[in-house]
Amino acid sequence: MKRHVEIFLAGVMVVAPLAVTVYVVWWLGSGLDGLARSLVGAVSEAAADKWIPGVGAVVLLAGVYVVGALTKVWGFRWVTAGLEGLFVRLPGVRSLYESVRDMLKLFGGDPGRMGQVVRYRLPGTEA
């Protein structure tokens, strides 16, 4: 019985991350499409009737690219610094914002600033 539980848990370790990732991507994509469709519908009902699925994701990618380009502008840096200051002052938002920011800096940051890997052996053990 223990072997069957181990096999099942091994399957969960493979399927759960994949399922959660697929669901989150689907949820974000459909949410973005719905948001973009409602914005287009507010401007033009005819354009909303001719909606092409996936436009919301394209708009998101283009928006992120534009924000990235704007980070080179001094005035925009002032705005983002102000928003960051606001987020850091809000108790629940602060934890989420700083966690995401630190994670993105870890994986997308400058490799020269990452530091050095250290190997530590616990005294008296092989660990």
Mind explaining what this structure looks like?
This protein has helices at about 1-45, 45-50, 55-70, 75-90, 90-110. α1 (about 1-45) crosses α3 (about 55-70). The chain is flat. The two termini are about 30 Å apart. About 75% of the residues lie in helices and about 0% in strands. It has a domain at about 1-50. By secondary structure, the protein is an all-alpha fold. It contains 5 helices and no strands.
List the helices and strands and how they pair.
Layout: H1 2-43, H2 45-49, H3 55-70, H4 74-89, H5 91-108
Helix pairs in contact: 1-3
Mean pLDDT: 78
Amount of helix: over 70%
Strand runs, count: 0
Sheet bearing the most strands, described?
none
Number of helices: 5
Inertia-based shape:
flat
State the secondary-structure class. Answer: mainly alpha
Gap between N and C termini, in Å?
30 Å
In summary, what is this structure?
By secondary structure, this protein is mainly α.
Keywords summarizing the entry:
mainly alpha
